[in-house]
Design a protein that fits this description.
Layout (H helix, E strand, L loop, with lengths): L13 H8 L2 H17 L4 H25 L1 H7 L5 H4 L4 H21 L2 H20 L9 H15 L10 H19 L3 H6 L5 H5 L1 H21 L9 H17 L4 H20 L1
Helix pairs in contact: 2-3, 2-14, 3-4, 3-6, 3-7, 6-7, 7-8, 8-9, 9-12, 9-14, 12-13, 12-14, 13-14
């Protein structure tokens, strides 16, 4: 099969394969976070839709860029769960999808305003591609996650009727969630990554210390979400923090992809708490 031809092996439908290669679950979760933050920020409906779509488009480019960049490594270690590796998805299709999503990200970001566009394109999408292109194999593998997730709230607030940077506590919570998710997402692939020369922060810390640090960061992010806004925490906050605590424990005790999924759930719960607090 050549790079531009249709897939010749049996596999999922093309749309499903494309979504899988884009790391669709995390991409949709990040877009959902942006949408919830936009609701809390009282953006106009058009601006809410544009910001959410711009964030989603940027995240899709990061996911597709990641699988394209890692294709030789994934083939070397036999990661048969990836459509590009199995041949269920031609490389050319992913390249075209990445180009379309990249253009959509630029256009949608511009519609949200130049300040929001600059943050989304340079600090969010740019950080993600910097990770793909080399930072993932260094001590600085955490930095793109910290900058991207830390500035995500500002993508929303800079698109509002009174553009402004998000409060520092929001930035801190986002950065903590991002780094925690990075540590947990890498754990199942530590051995394969080492074999192909990838040694980011989680590889250097080791599995045990990475789990401990991730759990602490997720807890800190949740506490910032509760204690950061002005005024006393809402009376119902403990009811939300209880499942957050359970999920944080899962990041320590569970294996496979469950800890990363728990981190995504913590992020969504934190944003729901923030929105509900108003």
């Amino acid at each position: 099969m050549t790079a531009g031809t249709a897939p010749t092996r049996s596999g999922p439908p093309p749309v499903v394969a494309l979504l899988s290669a884009a790391h669709g679950g995390p991409a949709l979760a990040v877009a959902a976070v942006a949408g919830l933050l936009a609701l809390r920020g009282d953006l106009y409906p058009f601006d809410t839709a544009v910001v959410t779509a711009a964030v989603l488009a940027g995240q899709l480019t990061i996911g597709w860029g990641n699988d394209l960049r890692d294709l030789p490594r994934d083939r070397a270690v036999g990661r048969t769960g990836k459509p590009l590796v199995t041949g269920a998805l031609p490389v050319a299709w992913v390249v075209r999808a990445l180009a379309v999503a990249g253009l959509a990200c630029i256009v949608l970001s511009a519609l949200a305003g130049r300040r929001s566009a600059l943050v989304n394109i340079v600090l969010v999408a740019g950080a993600g591609h910097a990770y793909n292109l080399g930072l993932k194999a260094t001590w600085w593998s955490w930095a793109p996650y910290a900058s991207a997730f830390g500035t995500l709230p500002s993508v929303v607030t800079l698109a509002g009727p009174a553009p402004a940077w998000a409060p520092l506590w929001t930035t801190g919570a986002g950065a903590a969630l991002g780094v925690g998710a990075h540590l947990l997402n890498t754990l199942p692939d530590l051995a394969d990554d080492e074999r192909t020369g990838v040694r980011g922060l989680p590889h250097r810390l080791g599995e045990r210390l990475s789990r401990v640090l991730a759990a602490v960061l997720l807890a800190v992010a949740s506490l910032l979400t509760v204690l950061g806004p002005a005024g006393p925490p809402p009376a119902w906050a403990p009811a939300v923090l209880a499942p957050v605590a359970v999920l944080v424990v899962l990041t320590w005790a569970a294996h496979g992809r469950t800890p990363f999924r728990a981190a995504v759930a913590v992020a969504l719960l934190d944003v729901v708490l923030l929105v509900a607090a108003g």
